[in-house]
Amino acid sequence: MADLASLADDVLAEILLRLPSPEDLVRASASCASFRRVASTPRFLRRFRALHAPPPLGAFCCCPDGSAGFYPALPPHCSAPAATALAHTADFSFAFLPPPCDAWLVRDCRDGRFLLDRALEGSTSTAFTEVAVCDPLFRRYILLPPIPDDLAVSVENPYVQRGGDGELQSRSSEIFLASHGDGSISDDEPPFTVIWMACCRGKLVAFCFASASQQWRELSPPEHYALSTRRVMGVRLGQRNHAHGCFYWMVALTRRWLVLDTQKMEFSIVDISPVLSGRAMMFSNQITTLESRDGKTSVVVSDVFRPDKRCVLYFYSFTYFSDQWQLLNRIFLPEEWGYRFRGIIGAAEGYLFIKLDHAKENLQDQIERNVEYFWLDVKTMQLGSFCRTLPLLSMKPTCTVVLLHHCHYLLCDVVS
Length: 416
Known about the structure:
alpha+beta, F-box domain-containing protein, F-box_dom, F-box-like_dom_sf
């Protein structure tokens, strides 16, 4: 009988995998307990997400002053119902972490997990912190072991990467999550990797922590003159972008990318000057990456320093770094956005997410409390409102914004 039940579940899973959308899966799961049981397993959800990637549910914003909040997608966006349910169900205050909870700072979010850290008790270091990986929906967390002394000794006088005010929100490290990327569909909790980086004088230091081994190990960043100049590395790394298992940072004051391939755990430097020649690239949020299902990486460059004050997006594509980048499209954003455009905050599942401030409301408000996010469908080039912040949150220009979208949240409106 057990074998028959297992076979029935396997057949049911194959049927549910053929549902056309995440919304259809939610409705089917709500209609039958057995459907719900099969569809809520980690193995099924990972398989379903590989075929039907769910759109983002909202934006999580975290500012250097410690204020934070989740802002769900608004109607008529298709994610609005699930986003509202997630906002009511998950604990985005992270009160389940070891107290005091307001000492924790959100650093990253990926695959339904959040990465947070806080200053070590009795330590003045803004580089080495206590690190936690958690799931706010199920209120679970793990604390990572500290970086061993034999590795930490290579970090000498790292430059500040975040905050810079000398208070609890200052950080001299870049720390983020990477998917394991092995395609595993087992019923076990999928593994993860944490990457830790610091820009020191004349060098870049990097470590990685694997949940499978529960150990830190050293990575080998490239030796390149773009990384050895104090004038370059003395400022912060640019906005972190991701596509097809690779992370990208625009190296400040240059036309080069620092690239980390998480499949090989190897760094490289990519020269992107031929593409950007003639473009004024002053800010890291003027460029972002977007992965396509054919295996190519799209690069979106925003040109905001034009005589006509218009903002133009240029779309390029490449498969390998050695390829010549192909110009795919050029899009003029609405003319009235010229003074409101504040950059591209992210890209997911064929959409770009653009930050606009409200010029009139923020005229006397330099911390930009009134901010709206729009989505741009890369295929159809249609624009739509995604979510907006509230005046209660001080949206400083250096805030961290992450988009939430993951298979764990597909059924959250059923749970609630």
